[in-house]
Each structure stands twice: as structure tokens, then as C-alpha cells.
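Technical annex B. To support the medicinal chemistry partners, we prepared a structural model of the target in complex with beta-D-fucofuranose, based solely on the information shown next.
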Amino acid sequence: MRGYCRIGLIFLVQICSLSGCGILSRPTENSPESTAENDLIVVGFAQIGAESDWRVANTESIMSTFTEENGFELVFNDGQQKFENQVKALRNFIQLEVDYIVLAPVVETGWDTVFAEVKAANIPLIISDRFVEVKDDSLYTAWVGSDFLSEGEKAIDWLNSYLESQGRADEEINIVELQGTLGSTAEIGRTEGIARKLAEKPNYHLIAIESADFIQSKAREVMGVLLQKHNEIGVVIAQNDNMAFGAIEAMKAAGKIPGKEIIVISFDAVRAAFNAMLAGDLNVSVECNPLHGPRVAEIIRKLEAGEPVEKKRYVDEAVFDQENAAEQLPARTY
Ligand code: GYE
């Protein structure tokens, strides 16, 4: 936004917030910086929502990275889990003539038109967290996020070795899977990774698979119904920690013992998941790292310096279970 009239920006932002488009901006009209010309890099960030602990940690990482002290001005939009809101946010960012647009896309498809508009406006577009499926890869500059397929595979690898260690490797096991938001890369990749590994085990039976949108309260409801329908559930795989917490609540309400009678597997490895592992309720959480703020900032710094950036960057992730949870907990930052 260097050289752009900041008052104009703030005016637009305020109109947006009055009209309910969900745009928020850090500086206020009265803040001393708001009238001064400066060299801040203006970043429009279209966030998915606030559906999980992971998402909250991700927002916090973005907010604490894109500060004025670090040379940025952040225009933040909460898409409330809706694709249409995110498209609107991108169009607003174009109007605001931000320097960079960062998008955490709720779903993979449908972006071609609005991305073409961003490209026509000459604004570099960085995708973080979930991925997009577009016909033309030149519509975005870079992506940084997780390998969700590998996360799914790791979950079943863990189950295999756990059952082995319990002498239960050949037992017939009924599995229930709670999926995240359908059509999101996190859901697509984890579902596929899990499915590939399950296919290798004829004694594993996926008896139900349902979406609870990555949301704890939905998972509690869905799991409550599944527990009534199915007597012999041996394993629940929740595609994020919050859905595992919801499922655990439902199991307890139904008189089942999570972590013992029913093995509970999840993804993200947020702090609360470590507490659930220490309590014995959750067996394992496959890590998904939400701290993308510094990674996106690094991409922007490189682009500013005219340096090349990687088109796709996967972050390293581990697997945590009841064996190593206590030792790992103090070092967790989210
Ligand atoms: O696993 C879940 C969140 O896209 C990786 O979204 C993210 C997922 C994460 O709601 O908790």
C-alpha cells in the first residue's frame, strides 16, 4: 500500500464493517499511525473462520506476525466457514489495493474466476493451510501447508503398531470416521490417506463415515447418533482434535470409556489434545502445524527482495500419543 492514501483504505474498511462484510483492520481512525504515510506492507488475509483450536492458533500466528512493528498492516477477514464470504473478501482486498493477498481456502474448488481477478489486479496471492484446485497454477504465487494425505496414512500406521503392541493385530475392528468440512483439502487428504491404509487391512471395517465440519459440538451430536446405531465401535478417527473432544463427550454420555473401550485417533495435536491424552481419553493425535504466520511472512519478504519462492512448501509434522504426551506438553506452543 506504499504510496496509497491510508485514510481511503480505512474509510473503505469501515464501510465494509458497517455493511457486515466482516473485514477488520488493525489501525483505527484515531490511531497515530492512521494518518501518517509509511512503508508498511499491506496484507489482506482471508481466514476460514474460528471452527477449531487449530484455527484459533492459526489466526493468532497471523495476527502476531503481520504487525506494524514487523512492517505490515493486516486487513483481516473472517469468512465464517463460507466460500462466498471468502470470494467477497478477496474482491474487497482488490478494491483496497492491498500489496499481498493471503488466503486460507475453506474448500479446494471454485476459485478460478476470483483468482483471475486478483491476478489482473497484479496482487501476489499466497495460499496457506488448505490447498486449491485451479486450472492455471500461475493464478497463485505460492502455497504453504500440510501434507494431509500423509497425515491420514500416519494415523493408520499408528493404529497398526498400537494394535500390534496390544496383541490385537488380527482382531476384527469396527471403525467410525468423522470427517472435516467436505471438499476441504484437510478432509480430502486425510480421508484418502486413511482409506488407502485401511484397504491394506481386511480385518478393519469402516462401518460409518460422516462429516462434522471440524466442529466439536457437531461431532458430539453425530457421535451420539452413531453410538446408538452401532454397538461394536472399536475405533473412532476424528479428522481434528475438536471433533475428537466432541466424540469423547458423546462416548462418556453413552457410558463408554474413550481411550480404552474405544480407541480415539485425531489430528492437529493442539495443547488440549495433550491434556486429553494425559487424561487417557484420546490415544493419539497426528500433528498439523498451524503456525503459518512466519512462513507466509518469509515468502512475502523474499518476494519483496525479488528472490524466488517455492511454489509448494510442506511443513514437517510428527505423531504424538499417550507414550510421549507428557514429555512433549511443556514445549507445545499452541
Ligand atoms: O485440522 C482443523 C481446522 O485446515 C488444517 O482446519 C486445517 C484444519 C484443521 O478446522 O482443526
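Notes passed to the chemistry partners:
The chain is about 40% helix and 20% strand.
The longest strand covers residues 204-211.
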